[in-house]
Amino acid sequence: MGQLIQQLINGLTLGSVYGLIALGYTMVYGIIGMINFAHGDIYMIAAIIAVTVLTLLGSLGIMAVPVALLITLVVAIIFTSVYGWSVERIAYRPLRNASRLAPLISAIGMSIFLQNMVQLTQGARVKPINALLPGGFELFTSNGFTVHLAYTQIMIIVVTAVLLAVFTWLITKTSFGRQQRACEQDRTMTALLGINVDRTISMTFVIGAALAAVAGVMVTVYYGVVDFSIGFLAGIKAFTAAVLGGIGSLPGAMLGGLIIGMIESFWSAYLSPEYKDVATFVLLILVLMFRPSGLLGRPEVEKV
């Protein structure tokens, strides 16, 4: 029972990170109907920025954890927002009226460019940091196994829940959310009604990049080590989470992330950790076979 509860906590933490990244995927898909395959690399850039800023703050003697985290988060969001805006302007906007294959190839090219840019400028070695939030709570002990709940895990789960609530409200209750949904339904009619479609799409990319920045900072604090290659696999798994939960659905993206986090955690603990990714993608195949719209997605209705 103790190990079961521990893996449940670990799965919730990992799934929260995947869910945050998946929110960016599903927001972009919901407004332009395309997948931003450079999104995982935006997350990786945020993690690299977090390591750089935390190291710089430590050298300046700024050791207060709340202050260091706040500064790191603000800097990471600013830089990744610029990257997100640039990806939309360079890789998507010029190809918005092209066939679906063209922006897909462009996004993959942008992903490769960002990954290699970080490798060349920051090096290929892993970048560690000292533990920023060590310690936690010992919940209980069962048969000699002690269940731990780390402070970083609490931070990740709470921040993810708050951000999901905030962005659900943003999309469903605000003027910007109505503009997003209008662009999703018909961009031409939306423009005729006086809504700036380009600005709405750019802001969606910026918001998605900001969510990836939060995930990147939290992963840096949680694991304490990052490198230039973490964005690819995390991005693929977050995309899988978005598809699993129902692409275009914010609660679905978070649900998909939590399911994948649970699968990886329990599979690694009770079976073979080498095959945890296989289990994740087999589940994706099964969902696409029997429920192509995802767990919380709605089937698309073709207009005639």
TrEMBL record:
Any coiled-coil regions, as ranges: none
Alphabetical keyword list: Amino-acid transport, Cell inner membrane, Cell membrane, Membrane, Transmembrane, Transmembrane helix, Transport
Transmembrane segments annotated in the record for this chain: 12-35, 42-62, 68-86, 98-118, 150-171, 201-222
Main localization category: membrane
InterPro entries reported for this sequence: ABC_transp_permease (IPR001851), BCAA_transport_permease (IPR052157)
Subcellular location: Cell membrane
Membrane disposition: Multi-pass membrane protein
Keyword RNA-binding on entry: no
Similarity comment: family membership: Belongs to the binding-protein-dependent transport system permease family. LivHM subfamily.
Protein name: Branched-chain amino acid ABC transporter permease
Organism of provenance: Jeongeupia chitinilytica
Biological classification of the source: Bacteria, Pseudomonadati, Pseudomonadota, Betaproteobacteria, Neisseriales
